[in-house]
Amino acid sequence: MCGVAGFLDFARTMTADAQSVVCGRMADALAHRGPDDRGVWTDPAAGVALGHRRLSIIDVSPLGHQPMASESGRYVAVYNGEIYNFAELRSQLSGHSFRGHSDTEVMLAAFEEWGVEASLARFNGMFAIALWDTRERAMWLARDRFGEKPLYYGLVGRSLVFGSELKAIRPFPGFSGEIERGALTQFLRFGCVPTQSCIVRGMKKLPPASFLRVAAEGDLDRAPSAYWSVEEVASEGRARPFRGTDDEAASELDGILQRAVHLRMVADVPLGAFLSGGVDSSTVVAMMQAGSSQRVKTFTIGSPDAALDEADVAKRVAQHLGTDHTELYVTAREAQAVIPRLPTLYDEPFADSSQIPTFLVSQLARRHVTVALSGDGGDELFGGYNWYFGAEARWRRLAGLSSRLRSTARGVAPLGRLSQVDRAFSRAVRTMPRGLRARLPGDLLPRVVATLAARDTSEVFLGFHSAWTAPGAVTGVIEPAHEVFQRRPPELDDFLARMMCTDALAYLPDDILVKVDRAAMGVSLETRVPLLDPDVARFAWSLPNRLKIGGGKGKLLLRKVLGRHVPEALWTGPKKGFVIPVGAWLRGPLRDWAETLLSEKRLRGEGFLDPAAVRRKWAEHLSGLRHSELAVWNVLMFQAWLEKWRGPAASG
């Protein structure tokens, strides 16, 4: 795992020394992603500079050093990630000679043999690649299928600049760092900045499963091109469903998962796994231990609060499988101590509070290993999120409510003053059936009202992911449409399939994978995600819904597979997870910190958020009448990020 950075100066005004210095500073901003080695390559005549920070995983010798040139010298690359099937690809590249045994060499040989686009389609891996073609004088940027590895890019003056994180682009001369207010509006809604946007004006994130080719003459009009598609895989799976028995499906999935896990266990450094005690991570660890002659190292973070703790479940699973298990019980004070680090770790504002335990378990694992496998991806592929359970039935019931109620709820949607939005919510809530109103906690009322206002299922999905249902009323800027929520592939003809596909396109790359990548790379730990293997995804999408959700449970087939390796009595039970009690913290030990960031004077001086709207939401949360911690936490994470991004003096 590594950090990449560089630029293509269309005007070609920099000297070789200047290129080297600038690119070196960009790369060094990513030292946490690659503490083991550093490299810079420049071509002043072409205006190209490539920088790299290396975390040595495969071929830790100098033969794995980057930037690396291909055998003929045509391509020069910097690359973050792993090509898991590199040994298979290497056997197919018999006409090429290799100096070492790194996957980077194989990647470059593949580009020479098959071309860039065709090679990307063959790669089974996670990656962000910057590739300079010396023959055609063009820069290629590429990203893996699901977006496990980040890649930012954009124009600064007359230069294309790129990097694994925004902090790598910041040292480039002329970079302004102006905040994109439409992206801020989206952040308040989702708690993360979607792939289609960036918090910094003029910067972009390369979408998952895509590549961009930019000629030295400066042709940036072309949009990124896709070499793979979640929607196509999902549609194909629905068109050609699995026809075997449930036991045959379990056997097939068991074999596919074992192959996916085995591919991700190749490393020349110590390797382990996160083990939460949940179905996904337990399945991954079971496959790892079954295929290993040594005890797999597993890591769990526990909470002293039994209501929030699953460390005991993880311990039982580890004991049954015989792993070398390490657990660490973390106090609230230790968890809160992570908060000041979050803005620097996450680079863009990010407000999923599970980032805290993710960082802590990464920090724990890094003391023992350099690579850790995780169980992410199971919820999106096998139906694990609680909002999937009975979602279609609830939508139908809500859709059948009176036209007066739905018409009132739609009054919430237009952008306006937040006081008007609040009044619209109040009207909608008053017209709800009293029994429904009584059963809803305060923090869910706005989401239910948004569901009532929804005209179709796409708007329902959007409501499920909204902390602020009218964020434009807080920022004064209408948010850009999130096109993922508007897609409706005709083959995905049922509610559950559309929800899962939407989450795989949005929530997974924008939230889940960002959370894991930044937390782990912040401590120089590589993470690998077997459940996002393309063969696993292909098979998952061929499964009928009944093998995913039923009886108030999700991931039914994955549970069946896990039961073959670990007795169900050891891991079954309600999911708890290491939950961060943000709401209680904000009323208690974090209150003074929050008050400083949310002061009316500060908000007014910064000019990004409506002070009255924010203070109203904060007072609402402190009162205890409504639990508004998600909305408040999103604001706090932006405020904390802004302070780091602009410096304390600029925050007033």
What does this structure look like?
This protein has 32 helices and 17 strands. By secondary structure, the chain is α+β, with helices and mostly antiparallel strands. It has four domains: 2-228, Aminohydrolase, N-terminal nucleophile (Ntn) domain (Glutamine Phosphoribosylpyrophosphate, subunit 1, domain 1, 4-Layer Sandwich); 238-385 and 507-571, HUPs (Rossmann fold); 388-503, no CATH class; 582-651, no CATH class. Helix 9 (279-290) packs parallel to helix 10 and helix 19 packs antiparallel against helix 20. Mean pLDDT is 88; it is low at 412-421, 435-443 and 648-652.
Layout of secondary structure:
Blueprint: E1 2-9, H1 16-28, E2 37-43, E3 48-54, E4 68-69, E5 75-83, H2 86-92, H3 103-114, H4 116-122, E6 125-133, E7 138-143, E8 152-156, E9 159-163, H5 166-169, H6 181-190, E10 203-205, E11 210-215, E12 225-226, H7 230-239, H8 246-263, E13 271-274, H9 279-290, E14 297-302, H10 311-321, E15 324-329, H11 332-336, H12 342-346, H13 355-366, E16 371-373, H14 378-382, H15 391-399, H16 403-409, H17 418-430, H18 434-439, H19 445-453, H20 457-464, H21 472-475, H22 495-505, H23 507-521, E17 526-528, H24 534-540, H25 556-563, H26 568-571, H27 582-587, H28 591-597, H29 600-606, H30 611-623, H31 629-646, H32 648-651
Parallel strand pairs: 13-14, 13-16, 14-15, 16-17
Antiparallel strand pairs: 1-3, 1-9, 2-3, 4-5, 5-6, 6-7, 7-11, 8-9, 8-10, 11-12
Helix pairs in contact: 2-3, 3-4, 6-31, 7-24, 8-24, 8-25, 9-10, 9-25, 13-23, 16-17, 16-19, 19-20, 22-23, 30-31
